[in-house]
Design brief:
With about 250 residues, this protein is α+β, with helices and mostly antiparallel strands. Helix content is about 15%, strand content about 30%. Strand 4 and strand 5 form a beta hairpin. Helix 1 runs antiparallel to helix 2. The radius of gyration is 22 Å and the shape is globular. About 30% of the residues are buried. Bound molecules: calcium ion (3 copies).
Length: about 250
């Protein structure tokens, strides 16, 4: 019983619960999300606590995606962000796979620090998954305003963690990829105090649909992990419980 109570306390207080640790494998169960059928309803997109996200167009019957048409196949569905220790994690769910469809190609993942319209970093979503700084971008051919789309050049910062499984959610018309980037690769763009303000963006080469997640978070001050104290408290409670139990067994004749 003591362990259960402590678990609940940990969820409420600890900043990054151990149970939510992200594995970059292209599967989103670790985010608390399983892209299922439309019938599962909009709530299927809600991730675990503490994860930033945006979701739109939860309706395969609607062809218009704004600004283009195309229905589920071109529907950028959701973007997620979280951070654990020294790594920033991102995930995108779309109706568009990371391969060519009807002559159109998937775009790269774009990060705009400061949310000022200048996309300062890009991650290649096909081939070698390199993070580029100061990238130049191409815009979508049909709907340029859905850009940026693909990194065309830039300063290679390193190959990052990237997970994608083409058939994981394809039965329900969904495709998901995950990215893990050491915050150090962002240099001074990643704040150590104050506010983390960034816009995360993804589209495909036509730009029929695009999605942006605006993150605006106050960086917490560096203090000892509350979970450490809770674990210590749990240990004391568990010891107290054992001691009480052993006394009880001695008092009750068997
Ligand atoms: Ca995962
Ligand atoms: Ca959409
Ligand atoms: Ca920027």
């Amino acid at each position: 019983m003591g362990a259960v109570v402590c678990g609940a306390l940990s969820l409420g207080v600890a900043h990054q619960p151990a149970w939510a640790s992200i594995t970059v494998d292209g599967l989103l169960g670790d985010w608390g999300v399983t892209p299922g059928p439309y019938a599962a309803g909009p709530s299927q997109w809600t991730p675990n606590a503490g994860i930033s996200f945006i979701q739109e167009d939860q309706n395969p019957a609607v062809s218009f995606l704004n600004p283009g048409f195309g229905g589920q196949q071109f529907d950028v569905e959701a973007i997620y962000f979280t951070q654990q220790n020294s790594t920033a994690y991102f995930a995108v769910v779309s109706g568009f796979p990371l391969r060519t469809v009807s002559g159109y190609t998937p775009g790269d993942f774009a990060i705009d620090f400061g949310s000022n319209g200048s996309y300062d970093f890009g991650v290649k979503t096909v081939g070698t998954h390199t993070l580029y700084g100061s990238p130049t971008w191409s815009n979508p051919g049909l709907f340029p305003a859905s850009g940026p789309s693909a990194v065309t050049s830039g300063t290679a910062k390193g190959v990052v963690q990237f997970g994608y499984q083409d058939s994981a959610y394809s039965a329900n018309g969904h495709y998901a990829f995950e990215i893990g980037i050491p915050k150090s690769l962002f240099g001074s763009y990643w704040p150590t105090s104050g506010v983390l303000d960034m816009t995360l963006h993804w589209t495909m080469s036509c730009g029929n649909d695009e999605l942006d997640l605006h993150v605006h978070q106050t960086i917490p001050p560096t203090i000892p992990e509350p979970s450490d104290f809770l674990l210590f408290g749990c240990g004391l409670l568990a010891l107290a419980g054992l001691s009480w139990q052993s006394r009880l067994f001695r008092l009750v004749p068997r």
